[in-house]
Structure formats: structure tokens, C-alpha cells
Amino acid sequence: MKKSSFNLIFGLVLTCILTFLFFFPHLLKGKIPIPADSLLGLYHPFRDNSYTGYTPGRFPVKNPLITDPVLQTYSWRALTIDNIKEGNLPLWNPYSFSGQPLLANIQSAPFQVTNILFFIFPFKIAWGIQVILTSILTSLFMFLFLKDLKLASIASVFGAVILPFTGFFIAWLTWGTVIASAMWLPLTLLSINKLKAKVSGLWFLILVFTLVQSLLSGHWQTAFYVSSCAFFYFLFLLLKSRNLRGSLVIFAAFILAVLIAGVQLVPSLEFIKYSARNIDQGYYPQRPDWFLPPQHLIQLVAPDFFGNPAKYNYWGIWNYAEFVSFIGIVPFVFVLVSFLKKESKTFFFVILAAVSLMLALANPISKIPYVTHVPLVSSMQPSRIILLFVFSLTVLAAYGFDYFLKEKLKFKIFFPAIIVLIVLLALALYTFLQKDSFPLAGNIDARSVALRNLVLPITFSLTFLFLMVLRFAKISKKIIILAIFLITLADLYRFGYKFTPFSKLSQIFPKTETTAYLASQEKPFRILSTDRRLMHPNISGVYQIESADGYDPLYLQKYGQLVSVWQTSNPKVASGSFNRIITPQKYDSKLVDLLNVKYILSFDEIESPNLIKVFEEGETKVYENLRVLPRAFFAEEIVKAASDKEELAKILDDSFNLSTSATSYKFSFEKQNILAKVNFEKYTDQVLVLKTVTDKESPLIISNVFYPGWQAYIDGKKTDIHEVDYMFQSVIIPEGRHEVKFQFRPKSFYNGLYLSILGLFGAILISIFLWKRKYR
Questions:
Q1: Which ranges does the record mark as transmembrane (predicted)?
Q2: Is a pLDDT exceeding 50 seen at residue 245?
Q3: Is the distance from CB of 548 to CB of 529 less than 8 angstroms?
Q4: Residue 700, SS3?
């Protein structure tokens, strides 16, 4: 075996081992990286139960900041995979917001390539493997990219094992989407390098695949940064070489990637069109946490200067995960070392670091997309571009370490380490002397927290200086390299362990008596909670229990407006802005009955003639709504309204009987006495089949959300679905006995699918052409 091949294989294996070692101690304990402890420790009905010896309500929560992986991405992926396993397209989610698109919400990520794991392993195990695999692939792809930049194998390993444990990657590790999208960046850049050097059908397909997978992995903002970075890297190489070789192929790959991702992009863009995203985000630029606060750049060298949410002592601007740009003390020293050589090779990454940092900070340039309301971009939180900042710093750190390995050691190597140490010591001195400048946040002594969390960065900095002194004393270079790896990994592993929660499989959405009771009731029905701490939005979906609330960056604007009116009982108050979480809690509203909310969950004893307590578990009480309307029922009339606002006013009017009447500003149906009956024959996430009997033509009301793509068939013949009661469904049923079928088949999905097929066809044709040209 050639030495170069051996070095490559050895580097890949070593990179894989060093990345896996981070997870290994927890895997031995049967734990995976997921914050299931937040479920058991923060939310009822889980808090009503005892787990692993802890008394009810006392289960410890490692990091209360991290709840979204279980409240959002885990539940959506579970629903997606369940639908696919049942042979259904995962298009609709009936379990949140009284129903809304599933595939189109982006974060359900049905086309993420690692989803194959869910068809091999049980879901919980597959989730853990997937999260760990994203870190390993991040490091492996980074190693290959750094090797292609002609760095030494050990320097490439150094950079590769840094990246998955930097601040951005650790902060978003457990989501299952963000890192799954970000991990393709180094492989994308490697593909561009290869195509610029020599046009190849294989590397063309790899480039297309990486760009597509970044888009399909569940986090568009991350994919936008990956694609933008890759495109500007391509332009940089083009300008640098002034050679068009491979340029057309690379440009074609970007175009084809967008087409292939069309099956996700088109439905999601349609959903965004009807969502409240722009309303929710409109006021964000005024928030202190929208851009990266300049003072939080301290986290480059001292990640926990402002405390750490996992230690319940965070006193910085909320929130920690959006700002932490830590790459390790020793790697940061090597970033400064890379500047000593002033190589043109590092120019792009220096510029990338500078530009990404500028765009993360608030300034006239970074505010342009938000002032001008650039579509999609203006709804992205700019601080998250630190992904590109930490990536570029990691590349520079690898260059610096390579310089250290290949050059004769000179005294100037001390300068970067001394600079970092001086900065840390100055920061410590300032913190010590400025006692009155640090806030007392509740019971948190900010100054003490800051000083305490400067100890380790200073220690690691001193240790590195000591190693350089030993090197001058002719200590073996191999020992010094080993020591550098050890303190770097100790620093990064410690940071990762401190922030990241790990949980046993049995702690992930365990069964409770409350969930078992609700799941056993005859469907369909919905639930409503009077407190966010009780069955938090999206939790019920894992147990296939439908809810009127929901938690998603994307939700229908009209549903938000409906809930605004619901909560205020004022049809003039319909803002629709809830900042991602909609939790209607007014249980005595007529809308509760209309939305088929049969069960109310509460901590309180509710005295109401319309509610009866039917179940209790610990502090959780379940009440049955005696006035609930069935999910499907016949109305005697549809009253014409002048506008959708008047529709809201009518359905809130006490004199308007929702059990016999509906309203619409688009059409009407004259009042009549009817004898009618309707029963569900089939009820699934994507398809509803009903049997109806009526003595005359009558409107059937379905309290499911009206959204483009729902189709209705009467005895196999397609019929129109009308929008009634502001945003629900109705079809006109002829006299007699009929079978009525509803299914969700949005045109946007199929239009996107056609684009994907076209893109795949184009990619295959180009790769065949390139292959034939190679062997011609």
C-alpha cells in the first residue's frame, strides 16, 4: 500500500474514532444524545410520574434550553416515518394546530438520506444513531476536504475533529436537522475542488447529491448558508484560476440541485405563502438577540463567560445556543498562527470568516435584507451565520497546525499563544475589578460565574505555552503533538458534555395513564390544555392524539388569527402572530365546540355545567366537553357573510347556532329542515371516508382546516370543498346514501415532484455524458 493511501485511511479511521469517543461513555450507559429529560422534568403528565427512582415532579433536567428536539423534530420525524411505513405520503399532520401540512413544514425532513436508519432499527435507536452519525460524517467530510487542501494528515485530523465539537455544532447537535444539513459543507467544497481540477461524472453527482441533501435535511437556513458558501467558493476559484474548466458543470450542479429538491421546495414555499412567518418575524430586528451581540464574541475563547444554561447560571443575552462560536483555546491559537505565514491558500477562509462575522453582527450592511424585506432571507436569524464563521476558523486552525508541523519552530510561534493568554488575563482582571458592572440576575452572581469560567481557558492557554517551551527544550515533537490533541479534545469534549443532554431510551416519550386514556377514546376528537406545562404543544402527536394547539415556526396565518379572536372574543383582534407557539386556553368559547375539542386538560378544578371530570393523574385533570360538536355534521344552512371578518363575528355570536348553521362570505345555502346522518368509516392522517344519509341535498361540515390540496369525492366523483366558518371545510351532499372521501393531495407536491424527476433526469444525462467523454 502506498504511503499516501495509508495516511488517508489512517486519518479517516483516527478521525472517526476520536469523534465517536465523545459519545462512547454515554452509549455504554444506554443513553443517546436527546433531551428527553426535559419532557420528564418540565411537562405534565410526565411530571406526575416517577422515573428511575425520582419522585414525581423531581426528575432533573440537564439543559432547559434544549427542548425543541423532542417538542418538534422528533415528533414530526416519528409521524413522517410512521406514514411512510404505512405506505402513505407524509403530507398532512392532523395532530397540531387542528391540522396543517407535514412534509411542507421543512423540519419533518422526509427525504433526509439518514432516514434509511429508521427502516433498519427501532425508531428511538435509529434517532440516536442518526445524531451520532451526523457528527462522524461532519468530521470525515472535513478530513477529506482538508487533505485535498494539501494539509498533512495529522493536521487534517486536527481540523476534522474540531468542527463537530465547535459551539455551533454542539449547540444544534440534538436537533437532527441543523447538523444534518450543515455536515455537507466540507464535502460540497471538496467536490468543487475536484471538478475544478478535473471534470468527473462521479464528482459531479457527489456535488449534486450534497447540495440536494443539505436542502432536504430539514433546515433551510443552514442549507442557504451551505449553498451560498459553496457558490462563492466556486466563484473564488474561478477568479483565482481564470480557467473555465469545470465551471459549466459546477454551475449546472447548483441548478439541478434546486430542481431535484423541488419535491420539498415547492410545497414548502406554498406553506410559507399561507403562513404567519413574516408577521412573526417582522419585529425581530429590534430584539437584542436577533444579531450576534458584540460582547458575546468573548465566547470565542471563553464559551461560558456568561454562564451556561446547563448549569442554570446563564446571564447573557438570550439565548446561548444562537451565539456560542467557541472552537477551543488551542485551535484558536492556531488560527492566529495561520496568519503568520500569509499564504494565498487561506485567503478565502479569512474573507469568509470576516464576512460571516460582519453579517452576524448588527451594522448597516447586515441589516439590508431586513430593511428591504428580502423574501425568505429577512425571516432568518442572522446570528446563525456563525456556522460559516466557525467553519472558516476551523479550516484556518488546521492550516495553523500544519504550519506548526512543517516549519522549523521559531520564537514567533509564541506570539499567538501569548496574545490569547493576555486577552484572557485582561478579561479576568477587568471582571475582577469591575464588581459593579456585572448584573445580579436573580440568584446568579454574574461576576463570580464569569471569573470561574475563565479558569479553564486560562489553564489551557498556559498549558499550550508550556508545551511550546518544552518543544524548545528539544522534547519529542510526537509527544508535543499528542499533548496538543489531548488538551484540544479535553477542552472540546468538556464543552460538549457540559451542554449536551443524553437520555435513556425508556425516557423518550414514555407512556402515561393520561396519554393511554386519551389514546383509547373513540376518534376523531381534539384536546386543549389550559397550561403550556401540561401536554405542551406537539407532545400529543407522538401518541396520535389530535390537539388544537401547536408549536412550529410555520403555521397558518388564518389559524393564528382565529385563535387570536378565540382568546379575546373580539373579532377585531386577529393579529395571527404568536411567535411559533399557539396555545388556545379559553375552554368556554364556542370555538372549542366547533373544533371538536372533546377533552380539556387542566391543573385546576373547573366548575362548569359543560365540563365533567373523567380522568385524573397526579396534578393532571381531564375534563370531557359535553357540548362538543362532532368532527363531521350536517348543517341546515350556510349564512352568507360580507367578509371573512364578519364570519368571525358570526361564529362568536351567542345567537348563532354552530350545530345547525355555518357561515361563509364565498357562498350560501338556504335554511331547511333535514333528516341526516353521518359516520366515519375510515379515519387516517391523510384520508377520511364517511358514510352519509340525508333526506335532501345538505351541506356537510368538517371541522378540519381548509387548505389547498384537500380533495373531496362523493361516490368516486370529485366535488368542490367550500371554506366555511372562517377556515373549515364543507361539501354539498346530494339526497340519499353516499360515500364521501376526503384526501390531501396538494398540486404543489406533484409539481415539485415533476421538477425533481426533471432534475434527476438532467443529472443522470450529464453524468453519462461526462463518463462517455472520459472513456472516449
A1: 6-24, 125-146, 152-185, 197-216, 222-239, 246-266, 317-340, 347-365, 385-401, 413-433, 453-472, 479-497, 752-771
A2: yes
A3: no
A4: strand
Alpha-helical segments (H) within 243-366: 247-260, 262-274, 277-281, 320-323, 329-341, 347-360
**Over 70: is that where the pLDDT of 119 sits?**
yes
Q: Which triple of cell numbers denotes residue 649?
A: 363575528
What mean pLDDT do residues 20-33 have?
96
- Are 600 and 606 within 8 A, CB to CB? yes
The answer to which of 148-152, 264-268, 375-379, 573-577 has the lowest mean pLDDT is 573-577
Residue bearing cell 434546486: 258
Q: What are the backbone angles phi and psi of residue 108, rounded to the nearest 5°?
A: -70, -25
Between CA 371 and CA 364 the distance in angstroms is 9
| Residue located via cell numbers 456563525 | 386
The mean of the pLDDT values for the chain is 93
| Per-residue CA distances from 278 to 125, 673, 708 (Å) | 37, 45, 20
> Can you tell me the distance from the alpha carbon of 334 to that of 510, in angstroms, rounded to the nearest whole number?
46
Inter-residue long-range contacts of 465-473, CB under 8 Å, 24+ positions, other chains counted: 465/414, 465/417, 465/418, 465/421, 468/409, 468/413, 468/414, 468/417, 471/409, 472/409
Q: What's the CA gap between 93 and 104, in Å, rounded?
A: 10
Report the alpha-carbon distance of residue 220 to residue 226 in Å, rounded: 10
Confidence of residue 438 (pLDDT cuts 50, 70, 90): confident
CA distances from 612 to 56, 521, 525, 619, 626 (A): 26, 15, 16, 16, 7
Q: What pLDDT score does 343 carry?
A: 78
What is the structure's pLDDT at 434? Answer: 79
What does the buried/exposed string (b/e) look like for 524-561 if buried means 16 or more CB atoms within 10 Å of the residue's CB?
bbbbbbbbeebbbbbbbbbbbbbbbbbbbbbbbbbbbb
| Nearest alpha carbon to residue 139 among 501, 499, 496, 502 | 496
- Contact between 83 and 328 (Cβ < 8 Å): no
The pLDDT of residue 505 is above 50: yes
How far apart CA 530 and CA 539 sit, in angstroms, is 15
Q: How confident is the model at residue 1 (pLDDT cuts 50, 70, 90)?
A: low
Which H helix or E strand runs over 730? strand 728-733
Positions of E strands within 494-549: 503-504, 526-529, 546-547
> Which H helix or E strand runs over 724?
strand 722-724
pLDDT score at 203: 97
Locus of grid cell 459546477: 250
- Single out the residue of 349, 360, 384 nearest to residue 294, CA to CA: 360
345: buried, middle or exposed (CB in 10 Å: 19+, 13-18, 0-12)? middle
State how far the Cα of 775 lies from the Cα of 771, in Å rounded to an integer: 7
Task: Report the b/e string of 574-598 with b at 16+ CB within 10 A.
Answer: bebbbebbbbbbebebbbbbbbbbb
Find the distance separating the first CA and the last CA of the chain, reported in whole Å: 30
Q: How confident is the model at residue 283 (pLDDT cuts 50, 70, 90)?
A: very low
| Separation of alpha carbons 22 and 496, rounded Å | 8
Note the pLDDT of residue 539: 97
- The structural domains of the chain, with segments of one domain joined by +, span 516-625, 632-745
3-class DSSP state of 581: strand
Crossing angle for the helix pair 477-499 and 455-472, to the nearest 10 degrees:
170
